[in-house]
Amino acid sequence: MRKKGFTLVELLASITILALLALIAIPAISKQIKNGKSDLYNSQIENIKSAALAWGTDNLFKLPEDDTCITVTLGYLKELGYIDNSVINPKTNEEFDNDNTFVSISKSGNSYLYNVKTTGNKCALVDEEILNQE
Question: Residue 14 and residue 11: Cα distance in Å, rounded?
């Protein structure tokens, strides 16, 4: 009489094949997740730039002259409603810091350059009290 079921060799072969597939698939999936986070991070940076651009459009007289720059913080852009209050950094899964995430705006020729930074030196910080009084 023949018993139904799998032999030990068949089970080991199946487990070996599944392990090899996992070894191939896991790094590929991990790379896709990392690329997705990087793309989302770049998208968030572009959103912050767009908010600063909208602020600059509404405040043309406050934009810098040649060879100077100003800095607008993320917190200030949030306060004025140019960007959502919750801007998540996908690399850390935490919100971007309101005071240490800023946009440096400088003039180059006839155009303005918007550079988002999360660390580093700030240009002349836009004085929020002066801006609110104008």
Answer: 5
